[in-house]
Amino acid sequence: MNDLTRVPIVVPERKVPPLPLLFRIGKKLRHRISAIIARSSKVGNAPVLRASQFPWIAALEARWPEIRAELDALLSHQEAIPPLADISPDHRRIAPPDKWKSFFLYGYGYRLDENIRRCPRTAAAVAAIPGLNSAFFSILTPDAHIPRHRGVTKAVLTAHLGLIVPKAREACRMQVDDRVLVWEQGRTLVFDDTFHHEVWNDSGEMRAVLLIQFRRPTGWLGRVVGSLFLGAVRRSRFVQDARSSLGDWEQAMQRVEREA
After folding, report:
1. Is there a domain that residue 168 lies in?
2. What is the pTM of this model?
3. What is the DSSP letter of 77?
4. How far, in Å, CA of 260 to CA of 258, rounded?
5. pLDDT (tens digit, 0 to 9) for every residue of the chain, 260 residues total?
């Protein structure tokens, strides 16, 4: 057997957990924390930022064909790529079942060595990003909808490198604050996810991006506050549960590869 999609992958069922204490405290303090980081920001505090503000993006976009090639190889085993809801406890509230999939290379600073081995060129490209926090392929199936939500810290910004974009581009869109954005292959969108945002894929095609979270460039006070917050998140049960979930999927995928 050489087709991973023929072998079902079973991982333990997990219910939606309560929000971690850190996140409940963070939500109460988010305005104070965000205000400190926003005042210290070297790139402003707009919901959507210009890619030209980040010099490393040009080098990343230059490598998009080889990144796309590694994604295509993964998609030949699409059923082995886990739904984000099975990986991230916090995202189970917004991730549509089996419609939002993710393949992690880095998560909150942790390396996923086996996944990096499978995508060495993509891993090398993102490893060069200053302040890299997380990097993963984010895949939306047709008719997926991610409801309005927002992140909890301005310490990081989010970038999407477009890899697979439906032909009906306007049918696959993201609204960040009052801006409606569409993806373009080989181009990068950068936004602040502490602003409310929502995603629709009303096309009949898949949408896939390389999703990157990286440290916001700030002055010293913003760096200190951001580092303290992200350090606490990295050690939290929220992140450790996600690491455990990734481990379950990794073991399942290795079993499939042995049987293939």
Report:
1. yes
2. 0.84
3. T
4. 6
5. 444 444 444 444 544 445 455 555 555 676 788 899 999 999 999 999 999 999 999 999 999 999 999 999 999 888 888 887 777 666 666 766 678 899 999 988 889 999 999 999 999 999 999 999 999 999 999 999 999 999 889 999 999 999 999 999 999 999 999 999 999 999 999 999 999 999 999 999 999 999 999 999 999 999 999 998 888 777 766 666 666 666 655 665 566 555 65
DSSP 8-state code for residue 17: P
Q: Report the amino acid identity of residue 125.
A: A
Collapsed DSSP state (helix, strand, coil) of residue 7: coil
Flag whether 12 is in a domain. no
**CB neighbours of residue 31 within 10 Å:** 9
Q: What is the length of the chain? A: 260
Q: Which range of residues forms the domain containing residue 86?
A: 43-259
**Edge-to-edge strand ranges of the sheet holding 156-164:** 48-49, 188-191, 156-164, 207-215, 132-140, 100-107, 110-111
Domain CATH code at residue 73: 2.60.120.330
> Residue 153, SS3?
coil
Which helix (H) or strand (E) segment holds residue 242: the answer is helix 237-259
Q: Which residues fall within 8 angstroms of residue 228, CB to CB, at 6 or more apart?
A: none
Asked whether residue 75 is assigned to any structural domain, the reply reads: yes
- The tokens for 32 are 């104070």
In a domain, 32, yes or no: no
What is the rounded radius of gyration, in angstroms, for the C-alpha atoms of the chain? 18
Question: Is the CB of residue 137 less than 8 Å from the CB of residue 103?
Answer: yes
Listed in order, strand segments (DSSP E) in the chain are 48-49, 100-107, 110-111, 132-140, 145-149, 156-164, 172-176, 179-181, 188-191, 197-201, 207-215
Provide the token pair at 14. Answer: 């997990």
Question: Based on the structure, what is the number of domains in the chain?
Answer: 1
